[in-house]
Fold this sequence. Notes:
It contains ten helices and eight strands. By secondary structure, it is an alpha/beta fold. The longest helix has 29 residues.
Amino acid sequence: MAHSALNPMHAYYADHFVLPLPEGHRFPMRKYSRLRDRLTQELPGVQMREAPAATDGELALVHTPAYIQGVATGSLDAAVQREIGFPWSPAMAERARRSVGASVAAARDALAHGVAGNLAGGTHHAYADKGGGFCVFNDIAVTARLMQAEAWRHRRLKMNVAVIDLDVHQGNGTAAIFANDPSVFTLSLHGEKNFPFRKEPSDLDVGLPDGCTDEPYLAALHQALQTVQDRFDPHLVIYLAGADPHEGDRLGRLKLTADGMQARDRVVMDWAWQRRLPVVLCMGGGYGHDIETTVQVQTQTWGVALDHWARWQRWHNLKR
């Protein structure tokens, strides 16, 4: 493995494909460029890379041809488009592809160097044939399937993937896509009474009450990861590090402090490190009353991930 100085931790972005949202739209689109700015200023060890666009063939590992075509051409049924939550535009279609491409590129990096991430992604409400909840294509599902296909093609390895979804909203699309797939384990730790109101069964769902604070949250997380370990043997972790369990989130309804959020990230990264499992980081939701609060929580997450990446580099260098 090359020396860490030659292989900085990579973060993939697509924030320059800005959706032309109507005035007053509740989705905080500018959080993505703000996060990239903050990481560039505060974490120079994280190198920014423009996300490639996922191809039709990559998307088709998960999504139906009719849905892929509908997003590409803007010909989705009006009700289907409304459920996504964004008006269609060429930029929306391009950004959706690049959000998937970012996670795919990060996964290839993580398999080589231990950890890498997507400054957006975590689009876990997208199903095979439809989007929802500001999610167009499911980057988690496409990434898992593509990494499995590449592992088999290149190494004849059957790859198991663990999805650790800690967004405050249940990962219904991801759960539905992998419902009958024993090679992918889906864990969702979420607000029980929050969106989506009709949940799909994950391999492990942990529903938390409104107002849940740091201590019970972290206890539930430890227990959940123990269950994953008892029931599954992963080769890769996709970690959906939603900022929306934070107490400052207007949609989250949980009450985790900034310290609690950082502790959450450390628990996941330490769990993965102890098993030498590469981690793909996706950001998921974050809807702070103040957008800078969300960006700060996400910056913390990247700081923890960078520490984790440095551990991997030291380990690789010792093995050389």
